[in-house]
Amino acid sequence: MTDTIEAGVLPGLGERERLERLALVPTATLGDVMDRLGLMHSAIKPMWRGAVLVGRALTIWTRAGDNKTIHEALPLVRQDDVLVISGEGDETRALIGELIGRRAQVAGGAGFVIDGAVRDVDGLAELGVPVFARAVTPAGPYKFGPGRINVPVSVGGVAVLPGDYIIGDADGVVVIAPAHVDSVIEAGEVKREKEAGILARLATPSDED
Fold it and tell me: Could you say which residues form the signal peptide (predicted)?
């Protein structure tokens, strides 16, 4: 972290406002103020255009191509949970589709980040379930296990702990530790406004022209 990003909280900032403010800062800007750390590999990308994701990590580690543990985790999903799934990078079997996406959505889940493959992309888009993953395949998963829930996982080359903040947009996914999130929000908003000012000045003809 830079010297300006330190652990702490913004006075009076509640969780709902925290998530709303995070959603308004681009992942690229968040990554910049965190010294480009916490950014997932570019292979983890939105599965449909316009997907935006913000919430807290409910982590799942499952064997490649197997979604038994994802089914076991669904009853644990709470409001604004992001199911962050380590599928060991396997692209041959889809770990979720429209049905699992809908079940998580009904429970209040914010969406999915998956180091693996998915299917039913059009259906997920119609439901408005944000999904960021490595690949798409029509091939369904196995359901034998094993797996783990709410343990540290590695997804897209980044370590994710249960409760970490997860933000996803057109550029990709960023992970922020709770101890630093408020300071990151503050620094990210400052940088966002600074860059907006630069763009505005560039759009205004100079008197010298």
Answer: none
